[in-house]
C-alpha cells in the first residue's frame, strides 16, 4: 500500500483527470442523451468501451497482462467489480436524464466518507477522531434528506456505496488498470449486446437511427473508458484515503452543472444536507493534511543527523 511520501505525481494527475471528466464532461454528455432509454445508453457504454479498450491494449501494452485473470481470485473479484460498476453507471445515467443531478452529486460527496469507513474496516487504515466526527456529520446530512423526502436518498446512497465498494475491490486486485477495465466490460459484453439487439428488433433503439444520436452513443465508450482507466491507475498508485480526497472534484462540478446549467432546484433542505456533507468533508480534509504533516515530521525526526 503506498504511503504518503511514496505517492507519485502521476497518481495525482490520473485522479484529477478522471474526476474532472466525471464531474463536467460526463453530465453534459449524458444530458445530451436524456431522450435515449437508460438501458440503451448502458448497453452502448459497455459495447463501445470494450471496443476502445481492446484497441488500446492491442496497439499499446498488448494482451499479455490479461493472464493475471487466470487466477480464480482475480477473475472472481473482477466479476464483482463489473457488477458494481454496472449498477453505478445505470443509476448515474438515470439520475442525470431525469433531473436528479444534485442527488448524484450528493452521492459522490458521501463516497469519500464511505471510503474512510471501508479503509478502516477492510484495509486497517486508522479512523481518526476527526474522521469519526466527519462520518457522523455526513450521516446527519443523509438523515435530513431522508426526513425531508420521506424516504432514503436511494440515488445518492446507491452511487456512493457501489463506487466505494468498486474502488476498494479494484485496489486489492493485482491487475493493470486498462487490463482490469477491459475484463470488466468483457464480462458485461454479452448482456449488453443482447440488450442492444433486443432494442433494435423491438423498434425502440436509437442506435443507427440518426447520425447525431449514433455518434453520441459510440462516443459513450470514450467518456466511459478513459476516466475509468485513469481512476484505476490512480487507485493503484495512491492511498485509498487520497483517492477519496481527490473525489471532491467530481461532485463539486456536478453540483455546479446541475444548478447553473440544468436548472435543478436547490432548496433549504438541500442546503442543510449539503452543508452537513461539506462540513464533514472539511473535517476529513483537515484530518488528512494534519496526519501527513505529523507523519512527515516524525520521518524527519527519525532520520540520523548528518
Q: What is shown here, in short?
A:
The protein has 306 residues and is mainly alpha-helical. Helices cover 79% and strands 0% of the residues.
Fold and architecture overview:
This protein has 306 residues and is an all-alpha fold. 79% of the residues lie in helices and 0% in strands. The chain is built from 11 helices and no strands.
What is the strand and helix layout of this fold?
Layout: H1 9-32, H2 38-59, H3 72-97, H4 101-122, H5 129-149, H6 154-172, H7 177-202, H8 211-237, H9 240-246, H10 249-260, H11 268-302
Helix pairs in contact: 1-8, 1-10, 2-3, 2-7, 2-8, 3-6, 3-7, 4-5, 4-6, 4-9, 4-10, 4-11, 5-11, 7-8
Instruction: Determine the strand fraction and express it as a percent band.
Output: under 5%
Q: Overall pLDDT, averaged?
A: 85
| Helical amount | over 70%
Q: Treating each run of at least 4 consecutive H or I residues as one helix, how many helices?
A: 11
Distance between the termini: 30 Å
User: What is the number of beta strands?
Assistant: 0
Report the sheet with the most strands, covering strand number, pairing sense and barrel closure: none
Radius of gyration equals 20 Å
Task: Give the structural class.
Answer: mainly alpha
Secondary-structure element order, N to C: HHHHHHHHHHH
- The residue ranges in which pLDDT falls below 50 over 5 or more consecutive positions are none
Shape, principal axes of CA atoms: globular
Amino acid at each position: 500500500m503506498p504511503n504518503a511520501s511514496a505517492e507519485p505525481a502521476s497518481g495525482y494527475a490520473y485522479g484529477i483527470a478522471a474526476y474532472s471528466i466525471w464531474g463536467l464532461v460526463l453530465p453534459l454528455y449524458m444530458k445530451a442523451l436524456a431522450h435515449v432509454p437508460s438501458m440503451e445508453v448502458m448497453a452502448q457504454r459497455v459495447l463501445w468501451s470494450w471496443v476502445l479498450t481492446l484497441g488500446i491494449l492491442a496497439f499499446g501494452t498488448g494482451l499479455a497482462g490479461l493472464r493475471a485473470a487466470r487466477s480464480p481470485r482475480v477473475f472472481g473479484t473482477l466479476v464483482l467489480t463489473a457488477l458494481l460498476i454496472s449498477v453505478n453507471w445505470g443509476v448515474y445515467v438515470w439520475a442525470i436524464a431525469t433531473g436528479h443531478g444534485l442527488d448524484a452529486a450528493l452521492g459522490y460527496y458521501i463516497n469519500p466518507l464511505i471510503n474512510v469507513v471501508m479503509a478502516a474496516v477492510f484495509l486497517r487504515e486508522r479512523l481518526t477522531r476527526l474522521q469519526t466526527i466527519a462520518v457522523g456529520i455526513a450521516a446527519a446530512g443523509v438523515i435530513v434528506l431522508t426526513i425531508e423526502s420521506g424516504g432514503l436518498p436511494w440515488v445518492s446512497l446507491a452511487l456512493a456505496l457501489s463506487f466505494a465498494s468498486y474502488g476498494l475491490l479494484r485496489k486489492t486486485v493485482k491487475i493493470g488498470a486498462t487490463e482490469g477495465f477491459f475484463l470488466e466490460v468483457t464480462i458485461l459484453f454479452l448482456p449488453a449486446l443482447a440488450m442492444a439487439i433486443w432494442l433494435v428488433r423491438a423498434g425502440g433503439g436509437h442506435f443507427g437511427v440518426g447520425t447525431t444520436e449514433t455518434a453520441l452513443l459510440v462516443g459513450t465508450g470514450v467518456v466511459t473508458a478513459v476516466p475509468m482507466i485513469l481512476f484505476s491507475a490512480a487507485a493503484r498508485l495512491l492511498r485509498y484515503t487520497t483517492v477519496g480526497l481527490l473525489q471532491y472534484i467530481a461532485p463539486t462540478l456536478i453540483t455546479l452543472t446541475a444548478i447553473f446549467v440544468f436548472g435543478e432546484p436547490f432548496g433549504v433542505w438541500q442546503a442543510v444536507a449539503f452543508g452537513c456533507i461539506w462540513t464533514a468533508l472539511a473535517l476529513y480534509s483537515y484530518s488528512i493534511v494534519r496526519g501527513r504533516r505529523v507523519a512527515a515530521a516524525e520521518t524527519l525526526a527519525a532520520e540520523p543527523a548528518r
